[in-house]
Amino acid sequence: PRQVAMYILRERVKKHLYKGSPYLKPLDIRLINGKLCLPLRVSWLKDKPLNLIPIDYVSEIIFKIFQSQNSFNKTFYVINQNPPSVEKVLKYTCAALNISTFQIVDSKEFFIKPKTFLERFLLRNVREYLPYLEIPEPRFKDGNTLQIIKDVIEPPVIDSDFISKLVTYCVQSKWGKEIIKYREIETDNVSV
After folding, report:
1. Strands 2-4, 29-32: parallel, antiparallel or unpaired by DSSP?
2. Is the pTM of this model over 0.70?
3. Run of H or E including 150
4. How far is Cα 46 from Cα 136, in angstroms, rounded to an integer?
5. β-bridge partners, 3
6. 44 near 104, Cβ under 8 Å?
7. Is 84 exposed, middle or buried (0-12, 13-18, 19+ CB in 10 A)?
8. Closest CA to 144 of 84, 79, 82
9. DSSP 31
10. Most Cβ neighbours (<10 Å): which of 34, 65, 73, 174?
């Protein structure tokens, strides 16, 4: 396997770019068979369902609810009837990003072998999403919603193709790096 030398640099330490600098943190990242191998462990709930729902599906349901005569004075929850697990979403995302060796482990493992620099770096950057990954999600009753939409609106399947389109959109739109201007980005003939 070919090893890639990679460093995460902070602005204040760029002046210390000489060999052997104590400010640089080498990461054990390898390319094996064309896949980026990141030695990452996370303690997320792998079987936990993620209530992922595309916004266009939600907006269709809201529109149907507003059109319905039976929607007055009721609560409506829009949920995914067949939500993917955290493990599946991680697997699909890693496949879309061409990453391997990303593992979901029991939190006790971090007492045996503490988190690496790369694992701490990842957790700092996804901390806003940790409650969705580490805490069991409540299950809402969607009976009122199902009575109105019945079988008219087909729920989307969250699979590897769907996640791949999301990842492609995020990369092309520079998600999180700049303010997204109102524009359409084409990904495999699908407007996102």
Report:
1. antiparallel
2. no
3. none
4. 11
5. 30
6. yes
7. buried
8. 79
9. E
10. 65
- How many CB atoms neighbour CB 56 within 10 A? 11
- What does the block give as tokens for 85? 């697990």
Q: How far apart are CA 68 and CA 144, in angstroms?
A: 11
**Which tokens belong to 23?**
């400010």
Over 80: is that where the pLDDT of 137 sits? no
Enter the tokens of residue 146: 């199902």
The Cα–Cα gap between 136 and 134 comes to: 7
SS3 183: coil
User: Tens digit of pLDDT for each residue in 52-101?
Assistant: 888 888 888 889 888 888 888 899 988 888 889 999 998 998 888 888 77
Strand partners, 40: 102
Distance CA 110, CA 36 (A): 23
Q: Which residue has the higher pLDDT, 169 or 185?
A: 169
- How would you label 10-44 residue by residue, b for 16+ Cβ within 10 Å and e otherwise? eeeeeeeeeeeeeeeeebebeeeeebbbbebbbbb
Kindly state the tokens that stand for 69: 């005569």
Q: Write down the pLDDT at residue 25.
A: 53
Can you name the residues that pair with 32 across neighbouring β-strands?
Answer: 35
Structure token pair of residue 156: 């989307």
